[in-house]
Structure formats: structure tokens, C-alpha cells
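Working notes for the structural subgroup meeting. M.R. asked for a predicted model of this chain before we commit to crystallization trials. I am recording the input and output together here so anyone reviewing the notebook later can reproduce the run.

Input as submitted:
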Amino acid sequence: MKMLGRLFVVLLIVLALTQFALPKAAEQGLEQALKTSYPDINTVNVDLEVFPALKLLAGKADKLSIDVENYPIGKLTAETFTAQLSEANLDMAKLLFDKKVHLNAVEKTVSLVLTENMLNQYIESNMGNSILAQPHLSIGDNSIKLQGVITVVGQEINAVVQGSLALDKGQLWFKPNKVVINGMEYAPTIQKRLLSRIGFKIPINNMPLEIQFNKVRQTPGKLLLETKTS
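Returned structure, recorded in C-alpha cell form:
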């Protein structure tokens, strides 16, 4: 009986240590894998909740939160990436052997913050065949403006394009609806022709889990992309 009692105590100690050590090891592994996959990120914080901890061996977690600063999404950098996951599934083989993060979850709340400055850095080098040169995006509470220069008969003319930002098929689109050139609005036919040559789209990809953002909100100087599934 004494031997069984001692074995029981040892077992309890092992389980207690496992409950503490396994989640910490998984958190550190996820943080390191994210830093390896995205070398430009500034800080990564992973918080994992699981009981019993042995479920982690099967890649299961009760709750998982990820907070990343300076997160790259293709050619664009987001200020922050935040994910709150419930009943999460981790690909432990990829994490352990490839140092890569692949996640899924029953419930997901994910947000991405894009700043005006970061968007302008992207736009300046990715406007493609737009007729608008020297583009600069301004984000207000209820307005989106794209300012720049249009060349007409060798003359550079200041232009202000009003529009909206929308999400569609994993991309963020700037959809122009009015252009003002040197303070003047032109006839609808000319407006339509000009607007067809102005605009841009930004692929929102490179995520550690399969999601599509379905909501975009704006505050002065920032965009917040969100998705929530359950």
C-alpha cells in the first residue's frame, strides 16, 4: 500500500509538471515558429489554455490567443494581428519539425490593423497602370480620399479621388466614386473614364490560419479588418 501511495504521489507530481510545462513549451514553440516564418515582426505573444495538458499531444487546445506587432501580409505590413481561438487545432508535426504554424478552430475572432502610413508605402509602389501619380491615401472617420497628380497634355494637375474600401474574395479594394481635378468636377462620362483608371487592390494573405476577413472599420489614420466565426 505504501508503494502504491508513493506511485500515486509521483504520478500526481508528473501530471502537475506536465500541466505546467506542456502549454509553456507549446507557447514558446508557436512564438518561435512565427518569428522564423515572419522575420520582420517586432513582438509575438502567445497564450494557450488547455486541460488536461496531454491534449496538446494530439494538437488540441481549449483557448489560444496570438498577438503580433508589425505583421507582414504579402507586400504590406500590418500594425497588429490579433487572434482569439476556441477549441483550437494545431498541426504539431509542422510545428515541431518544420517550425511552421498551421491553425484552425471552431470559434475564431481575428483582427488586423492597417495604418495610413503602411498603406501609403504599399500604394506608392503597387498602383500599377493607374493614371494617378504620387498617390497618397487619407483615412478619416467617414471618408477615404486618394490624392495625387494626373498628367494631361504634359501638364501635371492635382486630383482628389473620393471612394470607399471594401473586402471581396480575400482582397481589400479601393473603389473610387468621384474625382475632383483642380477643384472642378467633370461631366459623368469623363468621370467614368477617369475613375476606370484609378484604384487599387491589396491581397490579404499570409495568415497562420484559414480565414477571410468580412468586416472593415475605419478611424482617422487606421483601418481595422475583422472576422468572427463560430
